[in-house]
Write a structure and sequence with these properties.
CATH class of the largest domain: Alpha Beta
Low-confidence stretches: none
Helix content: 25-40%
CATH topology of the largest domain: Aminopeptidase
CATH superfamily of the largest domain: Gcn5-related N-acetyltransferase (GNAT)
CATH architecture of the largest domain: 3-Layer(aba) Sandwich
Strand content: 25-35%
Shape: globular
Mean pLDDT: 90
Structural class: alpha+beta
Largest sheet: 13 strands, mixed
Number of strands: 13
């Protein structure tokens, strides 16, 4: 099979591509491209002009002040999207993963991370060949049926939603640049580091909003939504959702829970994401970044009270320092 591997570094060079996986779409490429500190790479594999596979990765620059350090990490949300037979996928994924490793080395990345696997065994042989090591991870997913989504909530969660609505808490979709800016600043100030160690620049949320409004042409932008929770015309909570296939993914979520105890902004943000996903006909909503099974995780305990099911998965890592990577290979073998 004579295949052609193509790398795209600029959105203006990316042609119209088919596919339903938003995590490997040109839409998300544009969002990353317009976000400071992010360098996306879109790989495509074709044969005689026919697209066989594509994969999107992003290099994130992470800056910490206490203690001060700057590192880069390369992240892929899944193993790519494929338009070929199942027996070809492993070969194509191997070619793309090799190029990802070369790109990460050129960019000076300290670690490569592949997450959001469709199944725990996805790409297992290829990861091992490329000296990646697996870390057990957890996922929490709500599955919808014909009954109201609140029926799966714990008793305390249903009571909190009722109290918040009684206290005139409003939920909706962010519609203006001012709302996006207020939401992003609120989320940055109140976001728990235990949920996600990397928080993107505020431009990331503005890029999502611009795409929803039609600034980026050529692809459906109903794949993203930003929900806000308001009380007395002030944004006190919200979340960001990304939609791929039949599943909604809750990417970022938070609220001013200590300041607005009776309004439950964090609860209402998740409630809005769940009810909206069910109304739009999605089968599942998955919470991202719920932690590992090795330690307690406050965010995981929080979202499990919405009635989701917990299951095991993997994330694959590869460090730039060979001695450290070999040590982790031995520890996680």
């Amino acid at each position: 099979m004579a295949i052609k591997l193509t790398s795209y570094y600029r959105g203006s060079h990316v042609p119209d591509l088919p596919g339903q996986d938003t995590f490997h779409s040109t839409a998300l490429f544009h969002i990353f491209e317009g976000t400071p500190g992010c360098n996306p790479l879109l790989l495509t594999v074709s044969e005689e002009g026919a697209l066989l596979a594509k994969m999107l990765v992003v290099v994130q620059r992470i800056v910490r002040f206490l203690p001060f350090y700057i590192i880069r990490r390369c992240v892929s949300y899944g193993t790519g999207e494929y338009f070929c037979s199942d027996d070809q996928r492993e070969t194509l994924f191997a070619e793309m993963l090799k190029e990802v490793c070369r790109y990460a080395n050129r960019m000076g990345c300290f670690v490569i991370e592949v997450r959001n696997l469709p199944t725990p065994l996805s790409g297992y042989g290829t990861f091992r060949q490329q000296q990646f090591f697996p870390v057990k991870w957890l996922r929490v997913r709500n599955t919808f049926d014909s009954s109201p989504v609140e029926q799966t909530f714990s008793t305390s969660r249903r009571r909190q939603v009722r109290k918040a609505l009684k206290n005139d808490v409003l939920t909706g979709i962010a519609d203006t640049e001012t709302e996006i800016n207020e939401f992003a600043l609120m989320l940055k100030r109140n976001y728990l580091s235990k949920i996600r160690k990397h928080f993107p620049a505020i431009e990331f949320f503005h890029q999502i909003h611009q795409g929803i409004k039609g600034v980026h042409i050529g692809e459906s932008w109903q794949r993203f939504r930003i929900f806000v929770v308001e009380h007395q015309q002030k944004i006190i909570g919200g979340c960001v959702c990304i939609y791929s296939g039949d599943t909604a993914f809750l990417w970022f979520s938070g609220g001013m829970n200590k300041t607005y105890l009776r309004e439950y902004p964090g609860v209402m943000a998740v409630w809005k994401a769940l009810t909206d996903a069910q109304e739009r006909g999605f089968k599942h909503l998955e919470f991202m970044d719920v932690g590992t099974p090795f330690r307690k995780h406050g965010y995981r305990d929080f979202v499990l009270r919405f009635g989701g099911e917990q299951s095991s998965t993997r994330r694959w890592f590869k460090f730039r320092w060979q001695w450290l990577n070999k040590l982790c290979l031995w520890l996680y073998n």
